[in-house]
Structures are given as structure tokens and as C-alpha cells.
């Protein structure tokens, strides 16, 4: 495998992660509420815990789940499965962009639910909120595992860079978002946010179609 292939894999993982976290989710809404109501420090603690959970899941997949799939001979099915997941996530982004009340600032301003994430300490919430979201596990067991399978070709270096790409894709979105929300501002206007979600959703669908195509041709 060439260095160029490694760079393409890492860059794709970064872009896919970034595009995924742009989609409003329980984690995004909870982090935004912390930034608005308790300040940047609480939001940063929440984000740190969420990234710790991502790291733990990544390591479990690398040392447990993925070798198990290899032993079963099922690893080759990861690419089309991840492609289908990306297509679904992308279509959800497009639909979300056209739904009233999907904007981050309005969601962050909504009253807290009795069992909402902000009723816990920020670090505990950073672990519980993503773990309670089925989409989190679907993403990791399909898209995340597919990237792990690709990065394994370069050994520890590839896996280390992949983890940095996953974490970096989340941080690059969350840091400016939380900074803006903590000051009562929006990163994008509602109209621009809708357009960004549609654009990123289409990008996600495009990535998914490519993965599905590669998976299908690999069986040919």
C-alpha cells in the first residue's frame, strides 16, 4: 500500500468525522447547552469526556471487535456496510436541514429535560450522552470499523494517525462552535446552516456511494 493511499485514508476519516459531528445530535445539543448556560469550561469538560469515550471505543474495536471480524472472514463486508451507513447519515443531514427547530442555537436555548444530559456533571454527561445514542454505536461499528480495517495495512502508524484524524475531525468543529455559542453567537446563520448541512449531507452520500461501489467490485 502506498503512502498516498494512507494519506487518502486519513484525510477521508477526518472529513467524514467532521461532517458527521456537524449533524445536530444529542451530544452536539448537550455540549451547546453547557456552553450557553455554564460556560466554555463545562463544555470543554463535556467534550473531553466524549473524546475519551471515542478513544476507548476505538481501542476496543482495534484490539477486539475487528480481529473477531477478521477471524470470521467478515471484514471484507465492512466497506459496503460503511457505505450504506454513510448514505443513511447523509440523507439524515439533508432531511434535518429542512426541519424546523433543527438549528443549534434554538436547541441550546430549549428548556432542559428532566433526564437531560445537563442534569449530570459535564464529564459524566460526556460519557453517558453519546453512549445512549444508538447512532454513535452504529457509526463506530460500520464506518469507524471500516476505516480501522483500511488503516491496519500500515500497522501502528496507520492506526495512530487514524485515531488522531477521528479526534481532530470532532475538535475542529466543536471548538469554534462552542466558542461562538458561549458568547450567544451563531457560527452560521440559520439559512447558511441549512445549506451547509445539505452540502455536507451530499458529501456524505457521495463517500457512501464510493465505498459501496468499491465493496461490490471487490466481490466481482
Main structural class: mainly alpha
Rg (C-alpha, Å): 18 Å
Helicity range of the residues?
Answer: over 70%
Low-pLDDT stretches are none
Q: How many structural units, i.e. domains?
A: 1
| Biggest sheet details | none
Distance between the termini: 21 Å
| Overall spatial form | globular
Order of helices and strands: HHHHHHHHH
**Mean pLDDT across residues:** 78
Total number of beta strands: 0
Task: Give the strand content.
Answer: under 5%
Number of helices: 9
Structure overview:
Helix content is about 80%, strand content about 0%. It is mostly helical. It has one domain (about 5-220). α2 (about 25-35) packs across α8 (about 155-180) and α3 runs antiparallel to α8. The protein is globular and about 50 Å long. The chain starts with a helix and ends with a helix.
State the main characteristics.
220 residues; globular; mainly alpha; 79% helix
How would you briefly describe this protein structure?
With 220 residues, the protein is an all-alpha fold. 79% of the residues lie in helices and 0% in strands. It is globular and about 50 Å long.
Layout of secondary structure:
Layout: H1 3-22, H2 26-37, H3 40-72, H4 78-97, H5 104-108, H6 122-131, H7 134-151, H8 155-181, H9 190-218
Amino acid at each position: 500500500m502506498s503512502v498516498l493511499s494512507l494519506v487518502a485514508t486519513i484525510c477521508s476519516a477526518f472529513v467524514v468525522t467532521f461532517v458527521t459531528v456537524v449533524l445536530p445530535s444529542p451530544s452536539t445539543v448537550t455540549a451547546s447547552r453547557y456552553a450557553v448556560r455554564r460556560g466554555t469550561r463545562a463544555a470543554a469538560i463535556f467534550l473531553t469526556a466524549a473524546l475519551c469515550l471515542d478513544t476507548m471505543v476505538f481501542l476496543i474495536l482495534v484490539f477486539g471487535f475487528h480481529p473477531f471480524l477478521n477471524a470470521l472472514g467478515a471484514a471484507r463486508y465492512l466497506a459496503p456496510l460503511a457505505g450504506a451507513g454513510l448514505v443513511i447519515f447523509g440523507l439524515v443531514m439533508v432531511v434535518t436541514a429542512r426541519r424546523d427547530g433543527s438549528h443549534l442555537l434554538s436547541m441550546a436555548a430549549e428548556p432542559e429535560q428532566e433526564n437531560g444530559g445537563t442534569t449530570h456533571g459535564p464529564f459524566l454527561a460526556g460519557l453517558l450522552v453519546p453512549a445512549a445514542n444508538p447512532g454513535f454505536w452504529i457509526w463506530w461499528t460500520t464506518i469507524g470499523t471500516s476505516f480501522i480495517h483500511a488503516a491496519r495495512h500500515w500497522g501502528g502508524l496507520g492506526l495512530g494517525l487514524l485515531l488522531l484524524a477521528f479526534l481532530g475531525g470532532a475538535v475542529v468543529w466543536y471548538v469554534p462552535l462552542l466558542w461562538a455559542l458561549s458568547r450567544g453567537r451563531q457560527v452560521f446563520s440559520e439559512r447558511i446552516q441549512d445549506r451547509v448541512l445539505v452540502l455536507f449531507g451530499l458529501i456524505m452520500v457521495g463517500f457512501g456511494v464510493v465505498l459501496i461501489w468499491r465493496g461490490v467490485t471487490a466481490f466481482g
